[in-house]
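Input chain follows. Return structure tokens only.
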Amino acid sequence: MSRPWDNIIGQDEIDAYNAAGFGKSSGLGKRPALLIIDVQYRTVGTTPMPFWQSIEEFPTSCGQVGWDAVTHIKSLLNYFRKRRWPVLYPYVAPKMNFDQGRLAEKVPALMGVAEKGYEFVADIAPQPEDILLPKKHPSAFFGTPLVSYLVDKNVDTLVVTGCTTSGCVRGSVVDGFAYNFRIVVPHDAVYDRSDTSHAVNLFDMSAKYADVMTTSETLSRLIEIE
């Protein structure tokens, strides 16, 4: 089965990682939680459109790739709801004039997002039983009570979805790994405005921090949990 980094990461580099012993599977535990990171209209647009059209509405949008991922996230979300497993939404809260940090200096467009952009995509919007986690930085763990919620729910495995692969997803995966959670990244349920960054970061996460697979494969593994 093809992987996002095929034809981008050279075989010599893949062989070098394999020779060093990277990329072994961590497997899933018994109590998974689903993270849906930053899946708001600001990252996909209000309707599916190609990238260059989508950024006319929201400069921070990733366009069609975001909507493609939403379809896969919805499949995972439906299964988590069926099993009554925890679902958590780390998200970007509206930026205020006084709320400028280093990221706003690097990406000024983050400060000019219309109110609609901060709404959750309706197809996968949170329900009353879900946990909302407003954040100011890439990692869903930094400056939030995420770990406390996960401990309270006895979570041992995180299925990480959302946006962007190279930013908030990667930051959350690395921190989740550091907290000793098992991590699964369904590569078709995360998205990025750069195909190259998407592929390279998935390759690196697969090598070091997470089990990277398709949504279909993820669901097959989840079904095996008693």
